[in-house]
Design goal:
Blueprint lengths: L4 H6 L14 H12 L1 E7 L7 E9 L3 H10 L17 H12 L4 E9 L4 E5 L5 H15 L1 H4 L9 E4 L1 E3 L7 H8 L10 E5 L7 E4 L4 E3 L3 E3 L3
Parallel strand pairs: 2-3, 4-5
Antiparallel strand pairs: 1-2, 3-4, 5-7, 6-10, 7-8, 8-9
Helix pairs in contact: 2-4, 3-5
């Protein structure tokens, strides 16, 4: 069953401000739209007036394989570098840097949704500035694993949720504390993803290290 995005938003523990007040926000939005062939919606989910936590939707009227093709060519989001464990500059990160320069309050991206004709890619924040730092690496990694996440090109997932963790982490495990406090490390983006297929009743786990789909329960970030 496909996820209803409205229901997803309504079930969030946070409240979305659909009209965040920031200097240069319109220019930031236009930049994202131009560089990603998208219609962009930006909300603020911070309960603290002294900080901004952005929830960004980029609605692109193309398919996932087209995004991957153009990103590899550097013509979508200015993403052309191979995987790098350090931060990679992209049109997204550059635009956010400029937005931050114009504002005194700290700005971060809590969640980025890339809405495509055939799929939805949801990337959650796992540490400070993680989305903007790792977006290029994440898309390059999707491209590298495309054959495997599409079951040998036989079925594409209609949603890719990045990242997921084991649901059975003990309450006293440091990993759970790190997840909840946003102190995970960048390698956690490239361990496990959640995939939704029309042929599967529930989400499945994609194990990146073994390039395989495995069974198990998911811990999804829902701040």
């Amino acid at each position: 069953m496909r996820i209803d995005q409205n229901n997803f938003k309504n079930n969030l523990k946070l409240q979305l401000d659909n009209n965040p007040q920031m200097i240069g926000l319109d220019a930031f939005k236009r930049s994202l739209e131009k560089e990603h062939f998208a219609e962009v919606t930006i909300c603020n989910c911070s309960a603290d007036e002294q900080a901004a936590k952005l929830v960004i939707e980029m609605d692109c009227k193309i398919e996932l394989v087209e995004v991957l093709f153009h990103s590899q060519k550097g013509t979508w989001g200015d993403i052309s570098n191979p995987f790098n464990t350090s931060a990679t500059a992209t049109a997204f990160s550059n635009a956010l840097t400029e937005l931050q320069r114009l504002n005194t309050l700290p700005i971060d991206v809590e969640e980025l949704s890339i809405i495509l004709n055939d799929s939805l890619v949801i990337i959650k924040k796992i540490y400070h500035h993680s989305v903007q730092e790792q977006l290029g690496n994440i898309l390059n990694t999707i491209a590298e694993n495309y054959v495997y996440i599409t079951k040998g090109l036989t079925e594409a997932p209609y949603e890719i949720y990045i990242p997921v963790f084991e649901e059975d982490i003990p309450d006293n495990d440091d990993r759970l504390s790190n997840i909840n406090s946003g102190n995970s490390s960048k390698k956690d983006y490239f361990a496990f993803w959640g995939l939704y297929f029309d042929s599967e009743e529930d989400a499945v786990i994609y194990d990146l290290s073994n390039k395989s789909i495995i069974s198990g329960d998911l811990y999804m970030l829902n701040h």
